[in-house]
Fold:
Amino acid sequence: MSEILIDDDAGVRIITLNRPDRLNALTGAIMAPLADACADAARDASVGCVIVTGAGRGFCAGGDLKEGGADKAVVSPNSDSGSRTEQGFARLRAFMETSRLLHEMPKPTIAMVNGPVAGAGIGIAGACDLRFAAKSASFLAAFDRIGAGGDFGSTWFWTKILGTGVARELFLLGEKLSGEEAFAKGIYTRLFDDETLREETIKAARRLADGPRMGYRYMKANLNNAEDWAFEAALDAEALNMTLSTSATALIWREKKKQAGGSND
Structure:
């Protein structure tokens, strides 16, 4: 059984974590192909929007500690790979490319949170531009329960999204939030009945995939710049990206009009 499922639907790439019996908890066997799937979606020009979700009744329960998480393939210290700590760091950091790709790829990304999300899963959800959740969804940092600091960009994303005060509350107190509570805090972008979540998410994703892709590319770049850049630098980038995006969009519209048999004027 493949632990990552890939489906294409009218310009929408749906990436599904497929370990429903373990609430899609992460092991090396799922994290490596997940990072590859995100990289492929980022470079595939036919893809206009990416949805990440989980099979069964959960989104992602974090690392599967019973299966060794990211460290299962770490071997004894050696001259090629270094110490066990070095190997563990390199392996985990490679898996965490999933979060970087979802956050930085030049196309919209949506986390379709169909149930519980915890641990590394909140990093993956936070990496996406939008988070559409079912009312049965919950949210739990969970790192305090295993004495861990956080991974998959979770501390960075949630500080950016919610502010440092709320992020510290979530991580340090480690309280589980219901779907409604998470939505009220701004964790989830939209909240739907369980039976309509997939339909509503795909509807939004298709709208994005059918929209001005060059516009979204530069819009996302501006939004990402705003997280860290000084205001003047962000203004410079906005001016450049506005010019690039409108020029690209105008060219695309002219080509479509030409193909439809209209005038180029």
